[in-house]
Amino acid sequence: MSRFTVHGVPGSPYVRAVLLTLEEKGADWRLQAMGMGHNKTPDYLALQPFGKIPVLLDGDFRLYETHAILRYLDRVLSAPPLVPDDPKQAARMDQLISITNAHVRPEVSGAITFARIVAPKFGIPIDESTIPPAIPAAEKCVAAIAELIGGQPYMAGEAVSLADLMLVPHLDYFAQCAEGEAILAPHPALGAWLSRMRARPSMAATGWDRLLEGVEAA
């Protein structure tokens, strides 16, 4: 029986960030998959009163808020460490996690990726007129991240950190749509980072289709 249970919708970048962390740590986990909208049901609100995903269960310990979950997993699970010891690298990690939450989620994933990648999978109609006005903010966001990574292999330095695991689910999906491909193209270092992250076994283990296969098999 898996120690960790994650409640969430397959395909959610925040659910995937938690699963990536568990995979990087070599931990056993189980996804309690939910359908779109299930996060507003009474049963789920009993776990997460704000109706957000994911929720982590570790035995009788229940935790929500993705950043808190990632920090907890890094503390309770063994190597590799996913928080840098160097104070400046740790600060850069925290900065990029904040950028992901404050800017990438609404300005990239919410404004463009949802319409191009998520909505079609669920048959949700989209308003095409909302996408062109969203592009300048997405360009600014991507450019800022590209500047911060510079020539480093990973977001906070030479090793994968929680910043990479929080950010890559968003940019992995974003790169799959035409607007994302065009916005990422002027930033080769960011493209190289995305290729490195996509090559990690944790990414293959937590892909949308892979998770859906697991749900169907169960």
UniProtKB/TrEMBL annotation:
<dbReference type="InterPro" id="IPR010987">
    <property type="entry name" value="Glutathione-S-Trfase_C-like"/>
</dbReference>
<protein>
    <submittedName>
        <fullName>Glutathione S-transferase family protein</fullName>
    </submittedName>
</protein>
<dbReference type="InterPro" id="IPR036282">
    <property type="entry name" value="Glutathione-S-Trfase_C_sf"/>
</dbReference>
<dbReference type="InterPro" id="IPR004045">
    <property type="entry name" value="Glutathione_S-Trfase_N"/>
</dbReference>
<dbReference type="GO" id="GO:0016740">
    <property type="term" value="F:transferase activity"/>
</dbReference>
<keyword id="KW-0808">Transferase</keyword>
<feature type="domain" description="GST N-terminal">
    <location>
        <begin position="2"/>
        <end position="81"/>
    </location>
</feature>
<dbReference type="InterPro" id="IPR040079">
    <property type="entry name" value="Glutathione_S-Trfase"/>
</dbReference>
<dbReference type="InterPro" id="IPR036249">
    <property type="entry name" value="Thioredoxin-like_sf"/>
</dbReference>
<feature type="domain" description="GST C-terminal">
    <location>
        <begin position="86"/>
        <end position="218"/>
    </location>
</feature>
<dbReference type="Pfam" id="PF13409">
    <property type="entry name" value="GST_N_2"/>
</dbReference>
<dbReference type="Pfam" id="PF13410">
    <property type="entry name" value="GST_C_2"/>
</dbReference>
